[in-house]
Design brief:
single chain; 383 residues; alpha/beta; 4-stranded antiparallel beta sheet; 16% strand; globular; binds pyridoxal-5'-phosphate
């Protein structure tokens, strides 16, 4: 008997669907495992809700559906024991927008924004685009876990440091920051009067059964007061092309500053994005659980394989469908190009401030993943 109710195994042809991920290698035999979307269809409930909305045939200016704030609040309470008020929500077309708005909403020109590297590239570009300086604190690998060094972090902070951009769970190193680690950051933020912008786009994708996502704002009301939390259904339910995300900001002046920084520049969320978000949060939980089980098995397969591939290693991926693979012992000069030539399209670690690493997206059918791993093995064995 199939242990899954939902089908994650069937390979769906994404060619000719204007997929950013697949079109990069159009006409070439390269398996795309770079940009962070998955090759699975979205939950049936999402697809049905979109059909119904499209059938209505009217697509005028819109606002969040009435039930959406309530549904989101219920999910945050159920999954993270986090109680929020509806008016704390600010809807956004995406999280990258949210990161950029947060950098503009906090502090003044030339103030400093701190983040941990390697990291999703917009964490490094948003401060500079907002005319802030960027401080990078490198994560270090200790006993199969990426961690920050508390002393180094403390030293990096100056009187001009105003904002901490946190990625939790962290892309690309796959950590789910623990309660103790978050409490350490919260204490630091209070002591140095830092604001926090916490990108939690991967919160629904915790793979380890003994770990859970904790929004840093849920630690205490004092921490929430200095935090802009960004979340979205986009990664979890595979709807990033529908552009619907939100910020949770409990502090009224901070929320006002955030809205002011959005100005009339940030566009509205589109009708179908809201429809999909409502269906995903309202009716997607069973699908999400099965997705996480499928991704966990993909991760385990990948970890076993990488362990036996010459010159490669990776730390345990606690969350996300992204693996951060260290190639520095392989002797390969440009690993992204090397694997591309071997027929596997990975993200170049250099873009994340991680020279010598590649990021592999395992949000795909097991068959495709196995095929990519076979190609990688053949190429590495020939080195
Ligand atoms: C940590 C993180 N934040 C934001 C994004 C993108 O968010 P959006 O498409 O909503 O701008 C990604 C996509 O990979 C991500 O990994």
């Amino acid at each position: 008997m199939n242990e899954y109710h939902f089908d994650f195994d069937t390979i769906i042809d994404r060619k000719h669907s204007a997929s950013e991920k697949w079109d990069r290698y159009q006409g070439r035999d390269i398996i795309p495992m770079w940009v962070a979307d998955m090759d699975f269809r979205s939950p049936p409930a999402v697809i049905e809700a979109l059909h119904a909305r499209v059938s209505h045939g009217l697509f005028g200016y819109t606002h969040p559906p009435e039930e959406l704030a309530e549904v989101v609040s219920a999910v945050l309470r159920r999954d993270y024991d986090w109680k929020i008020e509806s008016e704390w929500l600010v809807w956004l077309p995406g999280l990258v927008t949210g990161l950029n708005v947060a950098c503009r909403a906090v502090g003044d020109l030339d103030d400093e924004v701190l983040t941990f590297t390697p990291v999703y590239p917009p964490f490094m570009s948003a401060p500079l685009l907002s005319q802030r300086s960027l401080i990078k604190v490198p994560l270090q690998l200790h006993a199969d876990r990426w961690v920050w060094d508390p002393g180094e972090l403390e030293q990096a902070i100056t009187p001009r440091t105003r904002l901490l951009l946190l990625c939790n769970p962290h892309n690309p190193v796959g950590r789910v920051w623990s309660e103790a680690e978050l409490a350490q950051l919260a204490e630091l933020a209070e002591r140095h009067d830092l604001m926090i912008c916490s990108d939690e786009i991967h919160a629904g994708l915790v793979l380890d059964t003994d770990k859970r996502h904790i929004p840093i704002a849920a630690l205490a009301p004092e921490i929430a007061r200095r935090t802009i939390t960004l979340q979205a259904p986009s990664k979890t339910f595979n709807i990033p092309g529908l552009g619907c995300a939100f910020a949770v900001i409990s502090d009224h002046p901070l929320r006002r500053a955030f809205r002011k920084a959005m100005g009339r520049i940030v566009p509205h969320v589109n009708t179908l994005g809201y429809t999909a978000a409502l269906a995903a949060y309202g009716h997607g939980e069973q699908w999400r659980r099965e997705l996480v089980a499928y991704l966990r098995a993909n991760r385990d397969l990948l970890a076993r394989e990488v362990e036996s591939l010459p010159g490669l290693s990776m730390a345990h991926v606690e969350a996300t469908y992204l693996a951060w693979i260290d190639t520095r012992n392989s002797g390969i000069e440009n690993p992204a190009r090397f694997f591309e030539q071997a027929g596997v399209g990975l993200s170049d670690g250099a873009d994340f401030d991680g020279q010598g690493f590649v990021r592999l997206n395992f949000g795909c059918s097991r068959q495709l993943l196995s095929g990519a791993l076979r190609r990688m093995r053949i190429a590495l064995t020939a080195v």
